[in-house]
Amino acid sequence: MPHWDPTQYAVFADDRSRPFDDLLARVAAADPWTIVDLGCGTGELTATLLDRWPSAEVIGVDSSPEMLVAALPRARTSPDGGRLRFEEADLRDWVARRSELSCDVVVSNAALQWVPDHLALMPALVRVLSPGGWLAVQIPGNHDSPSHELLRELAATEPYAPYVGAAARRPPTPGPADYLEALSALGCAVDTWETTYFHVLAGRDPVWEWISGTGARPVLQALPEDLRAEFTAEYQARLRVAYPAAEHGTTLPFRRVFAVARRT
Ligand SMILES: C[S@@+](CC[C@H](N)C(=O)[O-])C[C@H]1O[C@@H](n2cnc3c(N)ncnc32)[C@H](O)[C@@H]1O
What we know:
By secondary structure, the protein is α/β, with parallel strands linked by helices. It has a single domain, classed as Vaccinia Virus protein VP39 (Rossmann fold), CATH 3.40.50.150. The protein is 38% helix and 26% strand. It contains 12 helices and 9 strands. Strands 1, 2, 3, 4, 5, 6, 7, 8 and 9 form a 9-stranded mixed sheet that branches. Strand 1 (34-38), helix 3 (44-52) and strand 2 (57-62) form a beta-alpha-beta unit. It is globular and about 55 Å long.
C-alpha cells in the first residue's frame, strides 16, 4: 500500500469528483441515518454527503494517516443534527467490526481497487447494510490503458525490475458484469455500468501529474531515490508520446466502473 500525498491527489480535484457525483446520483436513499465512506481520502467528497443528508451521521474511514490529516479538519456537526467524523482504520477491519444492518449507505469511491480480491468483501459490505440500504462503489477500470501498460513495461526493464517486483503487477480489476453477478447473488437489486471520461488536462506532463498521485505510487515508492528520478524522466517521455499535447490540452481517456446495489 503506497503512502499518499494529499496535495498531489488534490491537483485534479474537479476531474476526480465527477465520478463520485455520478455514482451518488444513482443512490436514492431518502433519509439515511448512518453513512460510511470507505477509503475516504482527504474527506472532501465525504463532506458532500452531509450536505446532501444533513441529519445523518457520516463516517469517513481511511487507513492513510497522511490523508486523514487533511480530512480531520472537515469534521463538523450540521444544524439539522447530523455530523461528519473520520476514523483511521483498514476498511476491511472496520467493516468486520461493524454490527449487521447498521449502515444505510456504504460508499467507496476509487478505493477498493487497492484491496486485493475485493469482490470477496461484498458479503461483508452487504451484511452491514440495513434493509433497503445502499452500497455504492466506483473503481478505475484503466488497467489496460497506455499509462498503465507503459508503467508495467518500463518497470520490467533493468535496472528497475529487481526493485519493483510485485508493485507493478497489480491484477486486473472487476468489470460491471462481475459486480452484477456478485451482488445479485447476495440478493441485492443491482445497477452497474462503466463510463470513459475524457479528461482534458493542462501543463507539460499532466498525465504524469495525474498518475503519480495514484496508480504509479507503488512503483515509484519501491524504487531507490536515484533510480526514481531516472525512471520518472523515462516514464514522462513515454507518456508524452502516448498522450500528445494538443492545442486544447492533453486528453486522458479514463474508464471507470460503477456498482450500486440495494439490499432487498
Ligand atoms: C484514490 S484515493 C480516493 C479517496 C476518496 N475516496 C476520493 O474519491 O477522493 C484512495 C484512498 O483509499 C484509501 N485506502 C486504500 N486501501 C484502503 C484500506 N484497505 N483501508 C482503508 N483505506 C484504504 C487510501 O488510503 C486512499 O486515501
